[in-house]
Amino acid sequence: xxxxxxxxxxxxxxxxxxxxxxxxxxxxxxxxxxxxxxxxxxxxxxxxxxxxxxxxxxxxxxxxxxxxxxxxxxxxxxxxxxxxxxxxxxxxxxxxxxxxxxxxxxxxxxxxxxxxxxxxxxxxxxxxxxxxxxxxxxxxxxxxxxxxxxxxxxxxxxxxxxxxxxxxxxxxxxxxxxxxxxxxxxxxxxxxxxxxxxxxxxxxxxxxxxxxxxxxxxxxxxxxxxxxxxxxxxxxxxxxxxxxxxxxxxxxxxxxxxxxxxxxxxxxxxxxxxxxxxxxxxxxxx
Length: 286
Prior knowledge:
mainly beta; 11% helix; Jelly Rolls; single chain
């Protein structure tokens, strides 16, 4: 078997690495500019800048990106922001999505963002839609309406993640592979803003997925591909339904965790870390 869906526990090295390992921010957009100037429309449908909802910053912010159809998608090339090089090594992607709680055949049942890596090229360019290179890795996190990973059963009360290299498919962010105590902490779907974070660890093949700062899934054995393109919105189907996205951010280092295949005893450290992680999340939003 080429991969496993999570370690028995994820060591959250809060004091030495988790809260202090965040490196340089490569790109961020909280849409407070009032425009979508940082983004290029990938499909025929763009997102728009809106004052109807806001997540980041929580105190003074008034704007977010509004999505009225699941076909909406825009992109931003990260290479120019990173000194002309692809994002490699330990790194993170963080964003906020507003869950309107709608299910069934109407409303926003697909609302997620992606980070991509194109091999032998620099990805989707700013101002254009013809990619340089071939899509190699796509990591997604947010709200989806099915799962496709072999052996996975869709859980509509949880959020979802995706990978296409090494591990291929959509899966639930339900704590699979973690201890029972950790699984109990994983946030379920609810109306309102939610923070979605994925972290690529220094080994380049382990991806940790977080919902509202709480570990929700770990993938090991994913493909080691550098990042070059950030995707805003799903860009598939044509389902109508308004929702909002905010606080898009990509950077080096880690926001929350350092993952190592430790014994189950690490669960105690993970549980102790949760209040600290939540405090850190509130501090970032201020």
